């Protein structure tokens, strides 16, 4: 029987952390130790490991809050090079910290163009914890990465036996195992009884591709997120523009509204050539480009949450897209 060949790229995070106390699910990040990719695999039973031929490599060993945009480009390049050099791969699994996992997944989905599935997986509890979820999540990710049904679905996020589309998923709980959710459309599928099931297709995929001309260390446009609240005076917006922001994402009050002072600051930013995108700080639901936004030259984020909208706007600016083309990307469901 031919075993599926899976490349595992380790980037650190909770799934690769170990505490001194098995009850510790909080302080391990500062007081624990790190595990290597081979240690993660060895946590699986031998008969489970025997189902796959794994080729492991380490990209980084850090908490996911330390990830940067240049790191994302380097990771995307590593995935592309790995797949190109190993055409026999059935899929790629990336282990990642959960804090910024949804952002990394969105970025990779927007830029990668590889023929095999790419699955990102993390854990809510360190490897040393009682009922650690890392081994089960890793096993599910290996199953999804090796499933023929996963091909052509873009980057996938696997956690708690659920399969999510990279641009739809968000981390919703701080410590609970069922943290990753797709609030508007639900999971794409599940892993059940050692089998992979897809219940729906994404039906679309926003894709920008690798920004033409970008090389490591090259210019990445600054795009900031402005969180709206009662009494917000627009000072933060003005500061971001003064710092050189080429784009701003407004995490507005639902359904995508800001204070009068913020609106004035955003209008001044648009007049100065800054691309402004109106998103919502809510858990679910989209922001449509209503008449007022059109009149003011502000784009609408649709169903993309602020952090994902920021990533799309950065890549769109790097690709040289005009505002109509950027809005067309946000208009996808």
From TrEMBL:
Q: Where is the active site?
A: 14
Among the record's GO biological process terms, what is one?
asparagine metabolic process
Q: Which domain of life is it from?
A: Bacteria
Instruction: Check the record and name the InterPro entries matching this protein.
Output: AsnASE_II (IPR004550), Asp/glu_Ase-like_sf (IPR036152), Asparaginase/glutaminase-like (IPR006034), Asparaginase/glutaminase_AS1 (IPR020827), Asparaginase_C (IPR040919), L-asparaginase_C (IPR027473), L-asparaginase_N (IPR027474), L-asparaginase_N_sf (IPR037152)
Location of the L-asparaginase N-terminal domain: 6-198
Q: So what family is this one in? A: Belongs to the asparaginase 1 family.
What protein is this chain from?
A: Asparaginase
Organism whose genome encodes this protein: Komagataeibacter melaceti
């Amino acid at each position: 029987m031919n075993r599926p060949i899976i490349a595992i790229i380790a980037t650190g995070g909770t799934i690769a952390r170990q505490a001194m106390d098995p009850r510790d699910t909080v302080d391990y990040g500062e007081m624990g130790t790190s595990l290597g990719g081979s240690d993660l695999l060895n946590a699986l039973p031998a008969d489970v490991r025997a189902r796959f031929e794994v080729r492991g490599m380490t990209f980084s060993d850090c908490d996911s809050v330390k990830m940067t945009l240049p790191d994302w480009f380097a990771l995307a390049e590593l995935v592309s090079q790995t797949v190109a050099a190993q055409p026999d791969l059935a899929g790629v699994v990336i282990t990642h910290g959960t804090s910024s996992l949804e952002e990394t997944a969105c970025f990779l989905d927007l830029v990668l163009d590889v023929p095999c599935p790419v699955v990102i997986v993390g854990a809510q509890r360190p490897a040393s914890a009682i009922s650690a979820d890392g081994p089960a999540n890793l096993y599910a990710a290996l199953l999804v990465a090796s499933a023929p049904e996963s091909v052509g679905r873009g980057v996938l996020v696997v956690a708690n036996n659920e399969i999510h589309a990279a641009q739809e998923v968000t981390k919703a709980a701080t410590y609970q195992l069922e943290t990753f959710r797709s609030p508007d459309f639900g999971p794409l599928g599940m892993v059940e009884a050692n089998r992979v099931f897809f219940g729906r297709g994404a039906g679309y995929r926003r894709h920008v591709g690798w920004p033409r001309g970008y090389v490591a260390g090259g210019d990445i446009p600054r795009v900031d997120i402005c969180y709206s609240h009662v009494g917000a005076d627009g000072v933060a917006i003005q500061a971001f523009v003064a710092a050189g922001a080429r784009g701003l994402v407004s995490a507005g009050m639902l359904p995508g509204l800001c204070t009068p002072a913020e609106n004035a600051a955003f209008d001044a930013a648009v007049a100065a050539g800054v691309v402004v995108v109106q998103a919502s700080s809510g858990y679910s639901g989209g922001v449509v480009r209503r008449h007022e936004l059109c009149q003011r030259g502000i784009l609408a984020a649709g169903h993309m949450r602020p952090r994902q909208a920021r990533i799309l706007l950065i890549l769109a600016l790097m690709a040289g897209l005009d505002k109509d083309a950027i809005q067309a990307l946000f208009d996808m469901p």
